[in-house]
Fold this protein.
Amino acid sequence: MNTGRPSGGALRARLARARLLSHPRLLGWCDAAILRSSGGARRRLVLLRRQVVDAQLESHPSVARLNARIERRLLGFRPRWNGRPVSQAEIWDLVSREPDPARRRAGYYANEPLFVGLEPDVRALVDARNHRAQELGFASYPEARLSLEGLSVRSLRDLSAPVLALGRTASSALREASPTGSWFPWDMMFAQRQATAHVRRGFSAADCIPAVRAGLKKWGFGPADLAFRFRRWDTPTAGLALHGQLPADVGVVCNPRDGIVHYSVLFHEMGHGIHGRAVRGPSPLFRSVGFPGFAESIGGLFEQVTCELSWLRTRPGISAEEARRLRASSYAALAFRMAELVGEVESELRLYGRADADLTGPRRRFLHGTLGYDDHPPISWVDPYHLSPGFHRASYLLATCFTEQVVAAGKAATRGALWPNPRWGPWLKRTWLRPGQRDDWVPKVRKVTGKPLGPAAFVTTARQEMAQGLAG
């Protein structure tokens, strides 16, 4: 199961997990035992069955060895700029800060030598995952992964449609406000940074960690909640949380830079750390942060603090008007990113539908025709989110829906604003974090908020914020 810290490397741990949980009769035994049981024993068996499915999907040698090979190449790669190797954080800074559009473009494509070279291996990984999923009775690997959280491809697409429409509106608003004449992804990143250039001192790299810790304290989290290892280090993604034997073994890796986006990322990763520290339960099956949809939803909820006017006003040099505009631009950027994610998820579904599918043409049409970018060759569809567990992008769509619904419920339960509100931390721990895997999270959303998980709350809030904050 996903507990403890591997002593011989990730691949060895995955293969050991496969040996433990891949007996051909184990799933059948779980199914029969579930039918005969009730109460806490039944819940343990349900959780065990999910771990068995997960292990037979992700830890089978045909999948695990490919995943490890891709992981080694990914982690060993350093993009090059001006003839020297640089970090991923430096590439991010280059694309978002460089006034020369040609240099921004070069930075945007800096990882292409790695990702294009990985495409054959990732296609092979997709094929192996699909084969494993079909062996277990699922139509595809995405269906198998979503089933572990009580969802399906169809339910995911139902959530996605309204988000896509909102993204088109956000794209038009962001392009209209952009200082660049062209509109490519590297222009988008530059325009977003330029929009906050006049308040940059409010989001310095030096103050990022202290400010986030102070924000969490005013949210009701104390030293024990933050008692996990933190390391400042460059990662292929913006940040990473590492969960071993919970709740004791938790680590967070992040590389904060200046800019509000890095404050959001750090809140998100600290949220994962607090989640890991908070879980309780009678066995490791219960002491888990869950599968990616729920885990990322908790991270997204913590990230929401950086959209709060009250928090923005605490940053140096941020007036009430500037805070209002920052909140609006954050919602616009998130709405646009959610639309991008819909396209990326559909691209992945196309790939899992046929491992040799052409992804470049449909992606190019989506970027130009749906998102409104000027026509350009899309970057490779390969990125770190194809690593185990795969189909991870869908989790961020779920997280956005979860966050807005739960914020409204939390305000009512704690009788106050989202932030600063010291009652929020205890409520979050009591309601969502400490129970671990005692309950399934998707039905629990309906129980806590009174409505099924969906995009309506996010779409409504984002439209209001964009209309009020971006006007004038």
Observations:
- The chain has two domains: 1-75, 77-469.
